[in-house]
Write a structure and sequence with these properties.
By secondary structure, the protein is an alpha+beta fold. The chain is built from 20 helices and 30 strands. The protein folds into four domains: 1-95 and 306-377 and 634-665, no CATH class; 102-296, Dipeptide-binding Protein, domain 3; 378-633, no CATH class; 667-790, Immunoglobulin-like. The strands form seven sheets. Strands 1, 2, 3, 4, 5, 6, 7, 10, 21 and 22 form a ten-stranded mixed beta sheet that branches. Strands 23, 24, 25, 26, 27, 28, 29 and 30 form an eight-stranded antiparallel beta sheet that branches.
């Protein structure tokens, strides 16, 4: 279940019913709201029912080595440490709580230059046999990694869809280790500390000749940090990246075909999509050019001490604490609606601070994730996306193709104008966005021009040749390629006004432009399609234009690569004093001209442009940088080792304290009973719930009770299933409906031809799809003749589960 978090939904100020949370809200707001908010938010004698932005009033991000951070832990030198296993060398203190996220794959790669397993060898059977010998040799129970010889892991949202294939791979490699020792030893090259500890000395190769390489590949390094990749958390997508450079056989062509169909939405329903994903991964792994051995987890710590610690720590299943959800959920225990949060990281920032092709190291990424405010956020415990500043609705009832209105706009790369698409254009999907606007840090307000200009930028800086000979940056070309490929038209429907009315003349009003986006491709999940080309920028249009002009005039380059090629600085909006001086001169030039690019002249007047440039100049004069956003935090100060961010509690900011509370403790649901009734599978469930006591809590497992009218949707589990037929194809996939007594029924009628059907099912609660308990059920469909003889459907085989 994906929960939109935009305007119109007020969440309770509690952590899933924590005891005492209501009184803490009253105390915190009474003490601090009047001092930190404008008079429109709170009045004397009244508690503010809505508190814009998030919990900490200040976030300090600093570079700390692990020893210093660990040594200062009891006194909360930092409240959270973003980096792998701060206490790896010793026991973690009792006040240190941890979160786990997917860090890396452990893989075997047949990359030798000569011998039987040389690159280009077509003997896939020999490679697979050799891989089996090595995998049976490697310890399957060892701290530091999880043996899992399949690229889709429990930390991928599509794990359920391929669970039976993962189980089959695991069983294939669980033979005795002694068998491997009796067979011919391979020369195994090891890369990295983990691989070094897993291979016996007698199997290790020297640095000159080897048969196969065992290495750890970081999941984050598979993903382009700049390029838009909506599927980046999906297991099938990461498997394609993992195997992409390993193909030597013809299976690679079929795998690439399946991949192209998946990213373009060239499939019918969920069953066909899942079938494509399963076929893709099967074909990728078939030749054993690369074989997954297992995966490792990143363990990050936050200080949960009773008084000086933090709570409500949400994280991402693959990025851990280095995610946008973390600073939007965390709160300090002694200052639940204010306070000073300290985040530590092991390394300094070594990349430029610009939002186009910078902010790529962990330190600066943490800064940008906190200061920026995208239209959509990555679903922290799933594989798709969720609402942040834009609500998304699929229109046209899923019909494809759809007509694009002749008046819809498209950026024209040659002229840099927004022009009507004209008559006769069609698209594969239409999405309607309701974009909740707010003020920028420099006092200006988000408008239509800010929403549209990122599309102009994408087409202006996109080059079909992908070269920099015409002054375009190849990194930016790659980063904007998806938007150019998917976008078929933009139509601004209008601007709505939405109001939060708390009574007693206390209201919050927001301007909400409604925009239809037409897409050349589609996805069965509209949130994935939405992430391909969302109409939003957390930057004002003039900051984007300022960066463009700086690059065009040779002041700096967007990316490190282009800066090195051209021999100019990498564009930094904050820390480069010389570049800042030249940007200041450009801002004054544009203020005098009332400059706005050609594409915006229909949306921005000369006077409005002068006001924008003047506001940007005033912001720079006050704060010393040009990093203006409409996000929840503003960059206040910085040094070589740190940065300080101040909360932006502006009344126009639509999200507030408590918005992301439900993500703080990801709960699980379990299958407690399975009954095969012949024409249906009946499932009973257990669910986790939080039991609190002051500032601590426990999670207990209880039977799912019958639903009632006051039960919130977030507290009800969903039962998902995938049915694989006798031929190995996906015949059905979906979500089982819950009955009044709390049971779930999976319909089994009209499955297909006689034979054994495998049903994989799991329960999810609150959108958490991480590390689920999956059950496999075997169900046998008898022959049609037998069905007629008995006068009805045969009872299914007693279920088996794993």
């Amino acid at each position: 279940m994906r929960r939109p978090l935009g305007i119109g939904r007020l969440r309770t100020f509690s952590l899933r019913g924590k005891a005492g949370s209501g009184s803490r809200l009253a105390v915190a707001l009474a003490c601090s709201a009047a001092a930190t908010l404008s008079p429109t938010v709170g009045r004397a004698g009244h508690e503010a029912p809505f508190y814009p932005s998030f919990y900490p009033q200040e976030i300090r991000i600093e570079t700390l080595d692990r020893a210093t951070a660990a040594g200062g832990w009891p006194k909360a030198r930092v409240h959270a440490y973003v980096g792998d296993d701060l206490f790896a060398d010793g026991a973690a203190p009792p006040e240190a709580s941890s979160v786990a996220s997917l860090r890396s794959y452990l893989v075997l790669s047949f990359d030798s230059n000569s011998g039987r397993y040389a690159v280009g060898s077509g003997d896939s059977k020999a490679r697979c046999d050799a891989a089996g010998r090595v995998l049976r040799l490697i310890p399957q129970k060892r701290s530091g990694y999880v043996f899992h010889p399949y690229p889709i892991t429990p930390y991928h949202a599509d794990y359920l869809d391929q669970f039976d294939l993962a189980e089959r791979a695991r069983l294939r490699y669980t033979a005795s280790n002694q068998r491997a020792d009796r067979e011919r030893r391979l020369k195994v090259r090891t890369i990295g500390a983990l691989a070094e500890t897993l291979v016996p000395t007698s199997w290790k190769a020297d640095s000159r000749v080897w048969d196969v390489t065992l290495e750890e590949i970081d999941v984050g390094k598979l993903i382009d940090p700049v390029r838009a990749q909506p599927w980046r958390k999906e297991g099938w997508f990461q498997a394609h990246l993992l195997y992409a450079d390993q193909f030597v056989g013809g299976g690679g062509l079929w795998a690439e075909h399946a991949y192209r169909r998946l990213v373009a939405g060239e499939y019918g329903g969920d069953a066909e999509r899942i079938d494509l994903e399963r076929s893709l991964v099967t074909m990728l792994a078939a030749g054993c050019e690369r074989v997954v051995v297992g995966y490792t987890l990143r363990r990050e710590y936050f200080n949960s001490e009773y008084s000086v610690g933090v709570e409500d720590v949400a994280y991402d299943s693959q990025d851990g604490l280095l995610s946008a959800i973390f600073p939007r959920s965390v709160k300090l225990k002694d200052f639940p609606w204010n306070g000073w949060l300290r985040i530590g990281l092991p390394m300094k920032s070594d990349t430029a601070w610009n939002p186009i092709a910078g902010f790529t190291d962990p330190f600066s990424r943490m800064l940008w994730l906190t200061v920026g405010d995208p239209a959509l956020l990555r679903d922290p415990y799933g594989g798709a996306w969720m609402s942040n500043r834009a609500r998304v609705a699929a229109t046209g009832a899923g019909v494809s193709p759809v007509s694009v209105p002749a008046s819809a706009l498209m950026p024209e790369a040659e002229t840099e104008l927004l022009r009507p698409v004209g008559a006769g254009k069609v698209a594969q999907q239409r999405l309607r966005y309701s974009v909740v606007t707010s003020g920028f840090h420099d006092g200006t307000a988000t408008g239509i021009a800010d929403i549209l200009y990122p599309y102009v930028f994408a087409f202006r800086w996109g080059s079909a040749q992908g070269t920099s000979t015409d002054g375009r940056d190849p990194v930016v070309t790659r980063a904007t390629a998806l938007a150019r490929d998917w976008l078929a038209g933009i139509e601004v429907i209008g601007v709505e006004t939405q109001t939060r009315d708390f009574g007693d003349d206390l209201k919050f009003t927001y301007r909400v432009p409604v925009v239809d986006i037409y897409l050349n491709h589609r996805a069965s999940d509209p949130w994935l399609a939405a992430a391909a080309a969302p109409p939003w920028s957390t930057l004002p249009w003039e900051v984007i234009v300022l960066m463009e002009e700086a690059v065009g005039r040779g002041v700096a380059a967007f990316s490190r690569e282009d800066a090195q090629r051209r021999g100019i600085p990498w564009l930094d909006l904050v820390r480069d004093h010389e570049v800042g001086t030249r940007l200041t001169a450009l801002v004054e030039e544009f203020r005098q001209q009332g400059y706005r690019p050609e594409a915006l002249k229909s949306f921005v007047t000369v006077d409005e442009a002068r006001e924008r440039w003047a506001a940007l100049a005033a912001f720079h004069a006050r704060y010393g940088h040009f990093l203006v956003t409409n996000g929840p935090y503003r960059l206040d100060s910085w040094s070589d080792d740190g940065a300080v961010l101040q909360v932006f509690r502006d009344p126009t900011y639509p999200l507030g304290v408590g918005t992301f509370d439900s993500y703080a403790i990801p709960l699980k649901a379990y299958v407690s009973r399975i009954d095969d009734q012949g024409d249906r599978i009946e499932i009973r469930a257990d669910v986790e719930r939080v039991v609190t006591a002051q500032r601590s809590y426990e999670i207990e497992r209880v039977a799912l009770a019958a639903s009632s009218e006051d039960t919130e949707n977030d507290e009800r589990p969903e039962c998902r299933y995938v049915i694989v037929g006798p031929a190995g194809n996906t015949v059905r996939a979906g979500q089982a409906m819950a009955g009044k007594a709390g049971e779930f029924d999976i319909e089994l009628t009209e499955l297909g031809p006689p034979g054994k059907y495998t049903i994989a099912t799991a329960l999810f609660i609150g959108g958490n799809r991480v590390d689920p308990e999956v059950k496999l059920i075997e169900h046998r469909v008898a022959r049609v003749a037998a069905r007629r003889a008995t006068g009805g459907p045969p009872r299914g085989k007693a279920p088996t589960s794993q």
